[in-house]
Amino acid sequence: MIHNLGLQNTIFNQFLSELRDENTQKDRMRFRKNLQRVGEIFAYEISKTMSYEPCEVVTPLGIKTMNLLAQQPVICSILRAGVPFHEGLLNYFDQADNGFISAFRKHKKSGEITIRMDYLATPEIEKRVLILCDPMLATGSSMLASYQALCDIGKPRHTHIVTVVAHQEAIDFLQKNIPSRKFTLWVGAIDEELTSQAYIVPGLGDAGDLAYGPKTQN
């Protein structure tokens, strides 16, 4: 199932428009803050799909039974652009366990793009709800490699893949390679074009550079 939050008339699109706007992007702190904001909205929407159980809450004047999360999710993000996005999700799922993955595209002179993974740290994910986030979903290769690496450690009960801007090619790629019953995709927008260097157009640019500054290429 695909949930496209950008199709709804909500404040979400204000934050997304600022993430895209080349003038607003000059303020790195605001860019990071907007990634957090959309992460919070995604977290709220994802929370509607999760399992709850009745719990007694003791107040100063009595006891109230309320439905609370039956199990906390595991939030995993792909470094480095995923960090502020992760923080937004964690602001709402504030008791969640957390994992981090270094997976990135390597551009060869031949034009070939490969996926390199340098680091993975994750808590136990067996039979748990996994939220896997990365702001951009261009080809889907990094996301799939991250998902498969996590599944080698433990099989999540269900995975929510969360991204701000996606390309249809990446969506098709994930649907082809991950059983539909195993994951739900949450996007802020689906853009029309993908360049030969696998950048989404109009997209929003390099989310990692916009959040933390340019990096050297090696």
Polypeptide structure, described:
By secondary structure, the chain is an alpha/beta fold. Helices cover 32% and strands 34% of the residues. It contains 6 helices and 12 strands. It has helices at 12-20, 28-47, 82-92, 141-153, 168-177, 207-212; strands at residues 2-4, 52-59, 62-69, 74-79, 97-107, 113-121, 129-133, 136-137, 158-167, 183-191, 193-194, 200-201. The chain is globular and about 60 Å long. It starts with a strand and ends in a 6-residue tail after the last helix. The model has no long low-confidence stretch (mean pLDDT 92).
Secondary-structure map with pairings?
Layout: E1 2-4, H1 12-20, H2 28-47, E2 52-59, E3 62-69, E4 74-79, H3 82-92, E5 97-107, E6 113-121, E7 129-133, E8 136-137, H4 141-153, E9 158-167, H5 168-177, E10 183-191, E11 193-194, E12 200-201, H6 207-212
Helix pairs in contact: 1-2, 2-3
Describe the structure using short key phrases.
218 residues, eight-stranded mixed sheet, 32% helix, 6 helices, alpha/beta, two-stranded antiparallel sheet
